[in-house]
User: Fold these one by one.
Assistant:
Number 1:
Amino acid sequence: MAKMSDRHKVMAYVLYKEFGYRQSAIAQLMQVAQSTIANAVKEVSFRLTIQNLEKELQEARYQLEQQGLLQETPTLYIE
């Protein structure tokens, strides 16, 4: 079975999550195992979660900066 590109993983995610296709149908279409589709959907879900968290962190940093609560350089403490 062939390895899926990132583009194909995202396409599989959209077909499964947004259009309701069965993983087995997507696997047949993309000529991979159903478990490959399951892993691709899970990976894309994780990537979306990470991107959302990064966006929230960026917004929190901006709000803290606007309130003058951020130091110029963060102080790192090693325990």
Number 2:
Amino acid sequence: MYGNIKKMKSTTTLQLTPREKEIIQAWASGRLSHEIAAIHFISEHTVKQHIKNIYRKMGVKSKIQAALMYGLIQQKLAS
């Protein structure tokens, strides 16, 4: 897992749609799929579809990997 984080390009999050970025930000803050759906007025199924797209675009297989990578990339972009 950590090897992938080190190799990941910071441009990956730029490839996420604005909605996908909202979803992963909500994840990172500990929200559940049904909570994210309610907040954004979308179905839980739609949230799960966004999650699949995030996994594919980021090349990860878990919510934790995606949240960690997203957090690291945000830190890198901020500095």
Number 3:
Amino acid sequence: MLETIFSGLASRFPNAKVGFGECGWGNGVPSSAATRAALYQRFYGYRVPTVPAYVGGGFLWAWAELLGDDAALSALGV
């Protein structure tokens, strides 16, 4: 699904780079460190090889809440 979105954006704006802007928790921070780590890895590591204009990106809204979360920080390579 995201490949379709970014491919469409790249086609509509051929002189621009496209990327993922923000990610956060819709219903509060998940209580499981494993769930948080899996979500971080999924979105921070997301690539779209079929869209050369995709530049990555990501901004985590819950960063301050996670500073004491060693599992989450480890998942991000911090």
Number 4:
Amino acid sequence: MFDQALRINPNYANAYNNKGMRLDRFSGVVLKNLGKFSESIIMYDQVLRINPNDANAYKNKGMKLKLFLRRCTSQFRRT
């Protein structure tokens, strides 16, 4: 759905933001799903390239990075 919208309009910032949020839902175990973490960050970065004033993209990216740091820290402490 988001990919189709982006094919039609590659500058549709909301599609990148929503795709990033969708990827966030599937980011379970850090090491197993590292690609999903980085892919969602890439989506938020794309939003910010299109619209550097998009507060939701900054918020979503910040929350994602915070979650990533927490999960990495908790896995590091377990080993």
